[in-house]
């Protein structure tokens, strides 16, 4: 889904202007999310829900177990991200995911149309 | 979901796809945050306390099981009462320290009766010779039929206080009705 929005070149293209790249629809939505502050709010909401349901504690326990096995000083950030990404994505409760998806879709409906 | 009713199926599908994408974005961001925090904790050794705490919790859970077990000693055994750490304590506290009032060495388990005598709350303590006028009043009410407070009475009894200490300057405690403290 690329290039569905094309801006015509501005008349003063030969001046000292930054060449604008074509933004995907997705990127435009992302910008709107960020500029409206909704992205931050959504992240806080998700963070809160994940704490409440114990997901964060689970993740922290996984990291501690990994660090004990591998040795504290041998642990890299990348190790932990690699460790948490599959397990983290898989263990989000359905209700939390549903709530967030709903909010995002509401935003899309109000912002994109 | 009423605000999506006007969308074509294509747009609705788009909406689902996009929202999933953004949800994944948010989740990845939070995963990195947690990983980052855990990385810091691991490298700085900040969870060492946590290990100790967990060990403590394990021990106390074990101890609690031991206490709940009816085959362990109960109060019926008298002296040998076991607490949740499996320790038993003597019925009289045996630690020795200094009384902050009189400076004597005192056993903890006997401190309360000692203080009673030492600080004058008990019966016998009031009969001790002290500097306070309370002692003088008590003395006078028992021994002298004359006025309630006669600091200058001249009786022939020996004066027990020879060091001249008194709360009122120049007083002589000369009542012979003293008892030993």
Write up this protein.
The complex is a heterodimer of chains A (113) and B (181). Chain A is mainly alpha-helical and 113 residues long. Helices cover 67% and strands 0% of the residues of chain A. Chain A contains 5 helices and no strands. In chain A, helix 3 runs antiparallel to helix 4. The longest helix of chain A is centred in the C-terminal third of the chain and has 19 residues. The model of chain A has no long low-confidence stretch (mean pLDDT 88). With 181 residues, chain B is mostly helical. Chain B contains 4 helices and 2 strands. The N and C termini of chain B lie far apart (92 Å). In chain B, 8% of the residues are buried. Chains A and B meet through helix 1, helix 2, helix 3, helix 4 and helix 5 of A and helix 1 of B.
Major β-sheet strand ordering of chain B: 1-2
Strand content of chain A: under 5%
Helix content of chain A: 55-70%
Task: Give the SSE string of chain B.
Answer: HHEEHH
Low-confidence parts of chain B: 155-181
Span between termini of chain B: 92 Å
Quaternary assembly:
heterodimer
Radius of gyration computed on alpha carbons of chain A: 20 Å
Give the helix tally of chain A. 5
Q: How is this structure best summarized?
A:
Chain A has 113 residues and is an all-alpha fold. Chain A is built from five helices and no strands. Chain B has helices spanning 9-44, 48-68, 111-119, 133-143, and strands at 96-98, 105-107.
């Amino acid at each position: 889904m690329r290039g569905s929005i094309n801006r015509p070149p501005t008349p003063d293209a030969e001046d000292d202007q930054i060449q604008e790249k074509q933004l995907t629809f997705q990127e435009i939505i992302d910008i709107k999310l960020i500029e409206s502050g909704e992205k931050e709010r959504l992240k806080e909401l998700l963070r809160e829900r994940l704490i409440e349901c114990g997901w964060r504690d689970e993740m922290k326990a996984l990291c501690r177990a990994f660090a004990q096995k591998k040795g504290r000083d041998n642990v890299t950030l990348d190790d932990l991200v690699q460790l948490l990404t599959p397990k983290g994505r898989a263990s989000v409760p359905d209700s939390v995911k549903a709530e967030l998806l709903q909010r995002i879709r509401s935003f899309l409906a109000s912002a994109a149309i | 979901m009423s605000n999506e009713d006007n969308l074509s199926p294509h747009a609705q599908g788009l909406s689902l796809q996009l929202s999933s994408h953004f949800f994944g974005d948010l989740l990845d961001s939070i995963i990195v945050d947690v990983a980052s925090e855990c990385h810091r904790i691991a490298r700085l050794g900040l969870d060492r306390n946590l290990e100790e705490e967990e060990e403590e919790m394990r021990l106390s859970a074990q101890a609690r099981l031991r206490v709940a077990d009816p085959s362990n000693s109960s109060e019926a055994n008298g002296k040998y009462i076991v607490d949740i750490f499996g320790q038993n304590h003597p019925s009289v506290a045996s630690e020795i320290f200094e009384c902050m009032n009189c400076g004597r060495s005192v056993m903890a388990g006997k401190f309360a009766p000692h203080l009673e005598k030492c600080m004058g709350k008990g019966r016998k303590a009031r009969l001790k010779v002290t500097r306070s006028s309370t002692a003088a009043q008590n003395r006078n009410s028992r021994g002298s039929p004359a006025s309630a407070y006669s600091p200058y009475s001249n009786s022939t009894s020996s004066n027990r206080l020879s060091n001249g200490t008194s709360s009122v300057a120049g007083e002589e405690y000369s009542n012979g009705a003293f008892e030993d403290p």
